[in-house]
Amino acid sequence: MIFYTNDLVEKYKQEIKQEIKHFKKKQGITPVLSVVQIGNDFASNIYVRNKQKACLDVGIDCKLHNFAEKEITPLQLVKFIKELNDNKRVHAILIQLPLPSSFFNVNNILNVIDKTKDVDGFCPYNIGALVLGVPSVIPCTPLAVLNILKSQNFEIRGKHCVILGRSNIVGKPMAALMLSESATITVCHTGTKNLADFCRSADILICATGCPKFVTQEMVKPGCIVIDVGISRDENQNCCGDVDFENVKNKASFITPVPGGVGPMTIAMLLKNTLDLYRTSILHSPAQLN
Ligand code: NAD
What we know:
Layout lengths: L5 H22 L4 E7 L3 H17 L2 E7 L6 H13 L5 E4 L10 H5 L13 H9 L7 H12 L8 E5 L6 H10 L3 E5 L6 H6 L3 E4 L17 E4 L3 E2 L5 E2 L4 H4 L5 E2 L6 H23 L6
Parallel strand pairs: 1-2, 1-3, 4-5, 4-6, 6-7, 7-10
Antiparallel strand pairs: 8-9
Helix pairs in contact: 1-10, 2-10, 6-7, 6-10
The structure holds nicotinamide-adenine-dinucleotide.
């Protein structure tokens, strides 16, 4: 089965829209997501535009703060994030990654975001809480993958889940999330030997390397559930994922395409996380309503 996520995304968006409408009517407050973008990366411009459009669709006010690389130093960026932390009208903060190379200490910058406004769930508190199984903001892409699996009522408990990639924003939180669902986890990366053997033993294969069409038919067990997180360009400059889709689709029992799979779900999860932070902020600090 090839699973395009558009219907599922639409369902989430309608639910989020309704809840925001309800809160706005009751409290008179609009949810605000502040997006900070440094520089003019081509792919980031597209991602930011998609996020802005999705926010508009559901009634979130998405404020873009776009600085030229020369216009702001890491220290000034930290100061700016602190101002957003203190701004009671802002419910959620997102730093668009990757930052330009002059902002080399990305973790130090992400650390500054208030954990109650950290919509991507990348700050150490939220990552730590995820690992400990404490309720937290879960990074949007891993959450998107889990919700795709849950939408199909797949049994996750006891399944062997192989994750390709160990980045802080996809692979590591994905592993923590699938572990919390009682899957047995293997994380493969650039240091893994016999990677294809691990892939072949996967019941659920989650691919997030950024290597176009890296996962071939021979690397997939018949009936495997394949989730493709990667976004790359193939030899003809067409958008593609980590998986050699045309060949693997015949062997997998379930596969997400690129484009049309994890990407749109990730944006739906950004909306969901923004709504959650907004709701918590309103319910916990009614004084700020004025
Ligand atoms: P990254 O470059 O930070 O990490 C890639 C990981 O893959 C690394 O841990 C590396 O060890 C591993 N890797 C790379 N090449 C490998 C190889 N040949 N063999 C084994 N392991 C290898 O990337 P990321 O930020 O985690 O993103 C991964 C991919 O997912 C990218 O294509 C990115 O564009 C995409 N992505 C998609 C979404 C979405 O919404 N669909 C969100 C985030 C990232």
